[in-house]
Amino acid sequence: MLPVYIYGSPVLRKVAQDITPDFPNLHELIEEMYETMHQSDGIGLAAPQIGKSIRVFVVDGTPLEEDDPTLKNFKKAFINAQIVERFDEMVIYSEGCLSIPNIHEEVERESKVRIKYVDEDFKPHEEVYEGFAARIIQHEYDHLDGILFTDRLSAIRKQLIKGKLNAISKGRFSVDYKYKLVK
Hints:
By secondary structure, the protein is of the alpha+beta class. The mean pLDDT is about 95. The strands form 2 sheets. Strands 2-3-4-5-6 form a 5-stranded antiparallel beta sheet, with helices on both faces. The chain has a two-stranded parallel ribbon with strand order 1-7. The protein has helices at about 25-40, 130-145, 155-170, and strands spanning about 5, 45, 55-60, 75-95, 100-120, 125-130, 180. The longest helix has 15 residues, at about 155-170. It is globular. It has a single domain (about 5-180), classed as Peptide Deformylase (Alpha-Beta Complex). A hairpin with a 5-residue loop joins β5 (about 100-120) and β6.
């Protein structure tokens, strides 16, 4: 299991770089990302969250398929992803993040996305996702651009959680998974 980088770590604010098919040990990295995500009880994990500023994220919505049958086979890796369109109605839903432990806030996002990416074999895809799958993708995709879900909150909400975020960035939090805080 890899350590999850915590709020305050500079890598979480960098814009990640595309990778090429010769990226070393990509399949192993993706497997380690899935393992880290599952051990941490996450449903998505982006490479910046494990300290790598590359455009890779993994998702696994299958643990939620009982509540949302559309997530039945929603487990995959997205490489060099580009969201080309966000559309349909705006939906508010509570989000959390492994890199921002113990904070959950209401975030407004579009209910559908069109995304281009390559898979682990660098085969290109362009797909449309909606509902909770679209939300997971948008959350993880934001990590690739150095954006955290707390950046999408209103000024008032940001002010109200400022103390909690400062505490997290100083290492004052408790989690059941391996983590790393880099200043």
